[in-house]
Each structure stands twice: as C-alpha cells, then as structure tokens.
Amino acid sequence: MDTTDISRELHLTVANEDYLECMVRLEREGAQGEGIRSVDIAQQLNVSKASVNKAVTVLKEQGLVEQSHYGKVVLTDAGRAQGNAVWYRHRLLRTFLIQELGVPFERADSEACMMEHAVSEDTMQRWLSYLENQGIEVVED
To answer: What are phi and psi of 67, to 5 degrees?
Structure first.
C-alpha cells in the first residue's frame, strides 16, 4: 500500500499516519496544546498502551510529537500538519463515498480510512479540485 509523498519522505507507515490522525481528532475534542493521554489514543485506535508508546517513540524521533517521561503527548506543528492532512483526506474520501456513491456511513468511514493512505498528494489534490468544481464540500465531523 502506498502512502502520501510527505509520509514517504518522513518514512511514516500507515499506522504512524493513523496515530497522527487520531491525535489530531482527540486534540480537537479536548483543549488544544494541553496534550493527549496515551490511554485515550489506545482506546480510540483499539490498541494496547504499549503499542501507543512504541508509536510515540517513533513519532518523537521524527519530530512530529513531544512527550515528557510518561506525560501527555503533544503534537508539534509538523505533526499536527501531517495529522490534519490525513484527517482531511479521510473526510474528503468519506464525503465522496457517501454523497456521490451512496455508500452507508460506517462502510464509507472504514473504506476512507484504508484509501486515505493509498492516494498520492498529487492525485488527492486533483481529486479535491475536481470535487470542488462539482460543488462538493468536505463534511466536518
């Protein structure tokens, strides 16, 4: 499975992108800048806290998150930008599947999650331009 151009440059895996997307979503639900608890990430992604700790270590090495010893995880500007990009692709794809193809929400959400990692930045930008020209706007959650 292909990842976006930026993710390739950062050597991000699909799982890394999912962690960043999850953190952006959790950050939006809480107070931005105060950090995200590892246990909340684990619950959201249905993974173990140990898996979260491994992912956070990798993301810290790449400068995408910061975390004091066993403290809350804080997205850096670069991490937030990448997480927002993944979340935006997810919403765009989900909106298209629901509005244009009539796919039920749950399936569209699940399939958008798989598709968001496979489409290059160039293709995504072309698709976005096409959808905007068609009058389709991304639905916010």
So the answer is: -160, 125
Which sign, positive or negative, has the C-alpha torsion 90, 92, 96, 99? positive
Which fold would CATH assign to domain 5-80?
Answer: Arc Repressor Mutant, subunit A (1.10.10)
| 130, 93 contact by CB (below 8 A) | no
The strand pairing partners of 67, in sequence order, are 73
1.10.60, 3.30.1360, 1.25.40, 1.10.8: which CATH number matches 86-133? 1.10.60
Structure token digits, residue 8? 């390739």
The residue with greater pLDDT, 96 or 2, is 96
Q: Please tell me the distance from the alpha carbon of residue 71 to that of residue 69, in angstroms, as a whole number.
A: 5
pLDDT mean over 132-138? 80
